[in-house]
Write a structure and sequence with these properties.
The structure is a single chain. The protein is mostly helical and 168 residues long. The chain is built from four helices and three strands, in the order ααααβββ. It has a three-stranded antiparallel sheet. A hairpin with a 6-residue loop joins strand 1 and strand 2.
C-alpha cells in the first residue's frame, strides 16, 4: 500500500520491471513450445511493461547525470556483491538448493565485474571522456561482461568464450 506518491511510483516500478522480465521469459518458453503468436504477444506486453518502468524511473527522479547514474549503479552492484548475494547463497546452501546456489554465485561474481567496470567508466566520465572500449561482450549464462575480447572460457560459469554476445 502506498503512503505517498513516491511510494506508489516505487511500487509500480518494481511491479512493471518484474512483469517485463517475466513476460520476456514467458515469450521464450512459448516460442520453445511452438506457440509463435503467443510468444509475440508476450514480447509485446513485455515491451509495454518496459515503457511503463522507464517512465516511472523518470517521474520518480531516478535518472540523473551519467556520473550520478554510474555512482548509483556501482553502489547497487557492490550491495549485491557484498551483502545481498552472500546472504542468499548462505540460505540456499542451508536448504540444499544447489541450483539457487549456482545462480546466486554466478550473479554475485558478475555483479563484482559490473561494479569494477562502472568504476572505470566513472573515472573516464569524470575526466571528461567516454569509456574507452571497442567491443563489450556479455555472457548469456551468468551475465559476466568482458571488454574488447572474450576469454577462452567464461571465468565465472565456464562456457566457451565464443558463446558471448556482442552488446550494441
Amino acid at each position: 500500500m502506498c503512503m505517498n506518491t513516491q511510494d506508489c511510483i516505487d511500487g509500480a516500478f518494481s511491479g512493471e520491471s518484474q512483469a517485463n522480465r517475466k513476460y520476456k521469459s514467458y515469450a521464450e518458453a512459448a516460442a520453445d513450445e511452438g506457440y509463435d503468436h503467443v510468444a509475440k504477444l508476450f514480447r509485446a506486453t513485455s515491451a509495454a511493461e518496459e515503457i511503463h518502468a522507464r517512465r516511472l524511473l523518470r517521474v520518480g527522479g531516478y535518472i540523473g547525470s551519467t556520473v550520478a547514474n554510474l555512482e548509483a549503479g556501482r553502489e547497487g552492484e557492490l550491495h549485491e556483491t557484498n551483502q545481498m548475494y552472500p546472504e542468499f547463497v548462505s540460505i540456499a546452501e542451508k536448504e540444499d538448493r544447489q541450483d539457487a546456489v549456482i545462480t546466486f554465485t554466478h550473479a554475485m561474481k558478475a555483479e563484482a565485474v559490473h561494479a569494477e567496470l562502472y568504476r572505470k567508466a566513472l573515472e573516464a566520465v569524470k575526466a571528461g571522456k567516454d569509456f574507452n572500449v571497442k567491443t563489450i561482450y556479455l555472457c548469456p549464462v551468468c551475465g559476466n561482461v568482458e571488454i574488447d575480447k572474450t576469454p577462452a572460457n567464461c571465468p565465472i560459469c565456464g562456457i566457451p568464450g565464443a558463446s558471448f554476445k556482442v552488446v550494441e
